[in-house]
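User: Teach me something about this protein's shape.
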Amino acid sequence: MSNSTASNSPNKKKKPLPYFMERTEEAALPSFQNRRTLADHVKDNMLCAGRKSYFQRIVYVGRHPKVTGMTLRDRFLKLIKELQECTVCEIKLFGLMINFDGYTVHMVESAEETVGEYLRTLAAADLFEESRVVLVYNNINQRLFRKLVWRVSDYLNELKRTELDQRDPNLTQGTINAFLVQVYQLCKMVREEELDESKFNSHRERSAFKSLYLDENYEEHTPDIAVLEYLLGLKCLFTVPEYASFYGRLPDVSSFRDRVWPIPKDLTPYDVFEAGKYDVNLTFGGK
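Assistant: First, the predicted structure itself:
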């Protein structure tokens, strides 16, 4: 009886697999025969993430006037709340925001439209003395956070400063790479703390207090003042206002068919066979 019940129950609709996980003969063909485009890889990434929206991740750093970390937190949260109340995009802002003593390291991820709108709002708010966008990662296939997480720290001045060799030709790229490794490690550690429900349930009060502050366990993976000041001084990186002015708004792209009616069938120029006195004769024939 259990077998008949199982056979009669409707099968749950399975999500389609990316092309590299399919076992069909057609999918096993080499990529040059499949004629795959960049759009196919974008769709694969979104399929792996289980979503339909194109997501973007941005990491930026900033230096603020000397105010407390909690004051900065309140200013940013107010700005983000106002943004979410007036935005037309349903996808909210996710990521990790860390405020040190006068410095900011933020990793935000969301739909490209939401991120652009946030950076435009941030540029107009005049919260920074200096800022730099360090990483722009388009079409991410996995979000690190499912909400906007905030942390405040007051141990930045206690960290040993990195000695930067200005004569090193690879100093810029090496510093950026090391900084991003630290940021991703901080994201991983904070995410694990957020997901650790058993710790939260057993030590509710202590965990609730720690949820706003980074303790000494994070010091090893925190970029120090020398690294932050070096990144803020790099002219090859966009500032937040510069990035917002260039990429903060999605372009309204209209195709040829949207602008011309009726659609022409013959695109050959009417004067293709007419030659003027300044045209060059490439046939090496007569005049």
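Now, about its shape. The CA atoms of residues 5 and 151 lie 52 Å apart. The longest helix spans residues 171-195. If you'd like, I can walk through any region in more detail.
User: That's plenty for now, thanks!
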